[in-house]
Structure formats: C-alpha cells, structure tokens
Write a structure and sequence with these properties.
The strands form 4 sheets. The chain has an 8-stranded mixed sheet, sandwiched between helices. Strands 1-2-11-12 form a 4-stranded antiparallel sheet, with no helix packed on it. The protein contains 4 helices and 19 strands. It folds into 2 domains: about 150 residues, Methylamine Dehydrogenase, Chain H (7 Propeller), CATH 2.130.10.10; about 170 residues, Glucose Oxidase, domain 1, CATH 3.50.30. The protein starts with 12 loop residues before the first helix and ends in a 5-residue tail after the last strand. The chain has about 350 residues and is mostly beta strands. A hairpin with a 2-residue loop joins β15 and β16.
C-alpha cells in the first residue's frame, strides 16, 4: 500500500538558496532513513555531475535542432574545454566496449580531421549497451570503459546515446567506470539516428555503419551543484505527498570553484541516530563525514543544521555510514573507499 511519496520541486531549492540560480532539480534520489520517532525522514541525492548538460543541439543538416541531454556521471564536465563548449562533427563508433568492434581512429576516417574547424573537438558517438542486439553479443560495459577505448583511439570527447527501450526524456546512458579526464554527454536514441540521418527506429538492426561521419553537434553546460540532502515530514497530505521542510549541502558542493579537482563532493548515504530523533550522520565522499541536527520551531518548521564532522588532513572518500548503540551511547561507523573503516563516538546528545 502506498503511504505517500515526494516530488522534486522546481527550481532546485538548494541551488537557489546557495547560488541564486533557478534550475530544474536533477533528482538522483538514492537512499533515506526515518528518524527514531518516525516524525521525519531524510533522503540523499547522489549526484556526481556538478554541471548539467544543457542546450545539446545538432547544428548542421536537415535534423538541426535541440535534443534532450544529461551529463554522464564520472565524465569530465564540458567546462574543462577551453571555450566551455563541446562542438564538432560526430563519427559513429559503435558500442565501444572492450569486447566490441574497435572504435576507428579519427585519422582513419577519410577527410575527417581536415574538416575540423577552429575550436572543434574530435567527437565520437557510442551507444549504450549492448543489450539484446544480435549483431553485438559481447557484454555491456560502463560508460567510462567506452570512453577509455575512445581515448585510446584518439578521440577528444564522447556523445553517449541511449539504447533501445531506455527513457528518451531525460535520457540515461549509465554512469561510472571512468579512468580518463574526458568530456561526455548523453542524448537520446532519436538524436542518435538524426545525427547520422538514419530512420528513427527502436528495433534491431538499426543505425549507421561504424565510421560513418554524421552532423555537427554543440553542447554547453551550466553549474548545478553536487548531490545533497532533503528533510521531509512523515505526515502525508490529502494527495499522499510528504512535505519537504529543508535541504542541506556542504558549502563546497554549491561552489563552482570546487566543481573540478577536489574529488566527489556529493552526499552518499544517511544514518539517523537510534537514540536521538534530532540527529543524523552523512557519508559525503570527499566531503568527509558530517553530523546534522534537526532543529524545529514547530512540527512543520524545521531545518537541518550541521553540528560536527570529520575530514582527514589527507582527504577522505566516505561511502557508507551506519549507527549502533553500546551501553546507551551512539557510535557511527563510516566506510572510506581508500582507508577502510572509521569508528566515531558521538558527542553530547542535546
């Protein structure tokens, strides 16, 4: 039985509060826990892409126009490029997995490198998957693995395209597995066909031959911050919606100066205090461990306030967090993907 659910509000409340920018919330709801008294629950949004891929367009040919796009978590943001813009003619590279048909090099495409204009990148399009394609029986792989094969072949950037059966708006091209600093953008399956002038199809076989040169594309990005935390009331309204009472992010997560080169500044998980309904603890990747206090002037007027934390001088990469009780005292365990398990004793429980 559905008790209730939540909606992501527009504009993104934390981004608006921190920066004044009004942008659509990305979502990325990951994990949550109820407070010890079941009056509230805290949800985490895990978001590894501090820049949203916006204004993705085909800029040449009969299919010129804007198409849906999203960032690919783990890839480099478009703003690492000198002109803050990804553009250039696209070549189809297939699926791009280690076991897939090889991605061609730019030099192997007749006339391709000579066609590049000043400021353009060498861009390869790689399809998500493979899954269910009889012409590609090899296992699917992470987008970062595809990007690595593209980098080895000499490409500057990757346009990932949604496979058959996936969501078209917004598209999704997977995440993770990146070992290179390479720009990546995800667009939908319709745009994939229109980049190469092939009929839009959602059945196999489809698409161009590997090595086909398609249209020119352009994509820009806007800063929208790393993942953060929501506080909700556990009392659903008549429409079965839980009211959002507050949000919390570490300051660096909403500061564009920390978007590149400081590790992942997204929250991952939350663990509430079993002995104090007003306390919660966060694992925040490179942001360390954070302790929050729920402060309320009334049941419907509450805020999340940081009350403590831990960040090693050499840095951290905290993934998991859990609370437990010994002799009436709350302890917090945090798993660091580099250093192992940390154990913290909590302070006064006021």
């Amino acid at each position: 039985t559905l008790i209730g659910d939540t909606d992501f509000s527009h504009p993104d409340p934390q981004l608006l509060e921190s920066t004044g920018a009004a942008r659509t919330a990305e979502g990325n709801g990951h994990q949550g826990e109820f407070t010890a008294d079941n009056q509230y629950f805290i949800g985490t949004d895990e978001d590894f892409a501090p820049y949203g891929a916006t204004n993705f367009s085909i800029t040449s040919g009969t299919n010129a126009g804007a198409y849906p796009s999203v960032p690919v978590p783990g890839s480099a943001p478009i703003v690492v490029l000198d002109d803050d813009k990804l553009n250039g003619p696209v070549v189809y590279g297939g699926y791009g997995c280690p076991g897939s048909a090889p991605i061609p090099t730019p030099a192997s495409i007749p006339g391709y490198e000579a066609s590049l204009r000043a400021g353009e990148e060498k861009v390869v399009a790689l399809q998500r998957g493979p899954t269910g394609d009889p012409s590609a029986p090899e296992p699917a792989c992470f987008p970062g693995e595809k990007a690595h094969e593209a980098v080895l072949a000499g490409w500057d950037a990757v346009v990932f395209v949604q496979r058959h059966g996936g969501t078209e708006n917004p598209p999704f091209c997977g995440s993770g597995g990146f070992v290179d600093v390479v720009v990546g953008v995800c667009t939908n399956h319709e745009a994939y066909h229109k980049m190469f002038g092939t009929p839009v199809s959602f059945a196999y076989p489809d698409g161009p031959a590997i090595g086909t040169v398609g249209a020119r594309i352009e994509a820009t990005a806007a800063f929208d911050g790393w993942g953060y935390v929501h506080l909700f009331s556990n009392q659903a309204d008549a429409n079965k919606k839980f009211a959002e009472l507050d949000t919390f992010a570490i300051p660096e997560a909403m500061d564009e100066n920390y978007a590149v080169g400081f590790g992942d500044l997204s929250v991952h998980e939350v663990a509430t205090d079993p002995n104090n309904a007003g306390r919660a603890y966060l694992s925040y990747y490179a942001g360390g461990m954070r302790s929050l206090k729920i402060q309320c002037s009334s049941p419907d007027n509450c805020e999340l306030v940081e009350s403590g934390g831990y960040l090693a001088p050499s840095g951290n990469d905290f993934w998991g967090v859990e609370t437990f009780t010994r002799n009436g005292k709350t302890y917090v365990a945090g798993s660091d993907r580099d250093d192992g398990l940390y154990l913290f004793a909590t302070g006064p429980q006021g």
